[in-house]
Amino acid sequence: GENVEQHPSTLSVQEGDSAVIKCTYSDSASNYFPWYKQELGKRPQLIIDIRSNVGEKKDQRIAVTLNKTAKHFSLHITETQPEDSAVYFCAKMDSNYQLIWGAGTKLIIKP
Amino acid sequence: DSGVTQTPKHLITATGQRVTLRCSPRSGDLSVYWYQQSLDQGLQFLIQYYNGEERAKGNILERFSAQQFPDLHSELNLSSLELGDSALYFCASSLSGRAQETQYFGPGTRLLVL
Q1: Contact call for B97 and A97, based on CB within 8 A
Q2: Which of A9, A86, A6 is nearest to A47 (CA)?
Q3: pLDDT band at A1 (very low <50, low <70, confident <90, very high)
Q4: Torsion sign (Cα): B59, B62, B64, B65
Q5: Which residue of B100, B102, B110, B111 is the best one to mutate when testing the A interface, meaning the one whose CB has the most A CBs within 10 A?
Q6: Cα–Cα distance, A101 to A108 (Å, whole number)
Q7: What is the mean pLDDT of residues B2-25?
Q8: pLDDT tens digits for B44-89?
């Protein structure tokens, strides 16, 4: 069935450096790809999303890139800060408008 | 604050018992989703409702059931509870559930089965 592979499962970066999280999918019909951030014990919150008619979207220090041909999309966080420490989930929307979720990446920002 | 509310925040119960979790969607949202998140795990989709009707089912156990009421709030019923049902249960809502739209999550209910 459809699934989303997310890598890495844990990412540790020095404060101020960049972090990149990658997701790959198998179904070519996907057109909507959101990214959620979940701080410890809290609810997932949408941080950025991208639709298939664009290849890149930026919002301040966060960007998402989409390669529909290769069926992968990535989250880029620049100038990382301690408050970026969280679990990040990628997802894709299937043809029934259901979100298929990645397994999550725990991002650790080292001071 | 997403506008999605869930009660209770915490629930402690014993194996074999039954509990009900409640969710109120954002104002104007017609679609409600339920997710289970076990410790350090991902989000497992359980079930979706739209305007009172079940729209999609995920990995929901037969011991679990849900419904959406005319005022659009939803309840998730968990019965014959087992230790492994201990988890965070999230409710999310979206406008229609039939478009490329954002799902907004509630704060979750933390269930502990002893």
Answers
A1: yes
A2: A86
A3: low
A4: positive
A5: B100
A6: 21
A7: 97
A8: 999 999 999 999 999 899 999 999 999 999 999 999 999 999 999 9
- Establish if A43 touches chain B: CB-CB under 8 angstroms: yes
Most distant CA pair in chain B, distance: 40
Strand partners, B91: B34
For residue A44, list chain B residues with Cβ-Cβ distance below 8 A.
Answer: 43, 90, 105
Cα–Cα distance between A82 and B31 in angstroms, integer? 35
Phi, psi of B18 (to 5 degrees): -125, 140
- Alpha-carbon Rg for chain B in angstroms: 13
Question: What strands, in cross-sheet order, belong to the sheet with A56-59?
Answer: A4-7, A19-25, A72-77, A62-67, A56-59
* Chain B: residues touching A (Cβ < 8 Å): 2, 42-43, 45, 48, 56, 58, 90, 97-100, 102-108
A-chain residue closest to B56, CA distance: A98
The model's pLDDT over A2-60, given as tens digits with 9 standing for 90+, comes to 789 999 999 999 999 999 999 999 877 788 999 999 999 899 999 999 998 889 999 99
The torsion region of residue A59 among left (phi > 0), alpha (psi -120 to 50) and beta comes to: beta
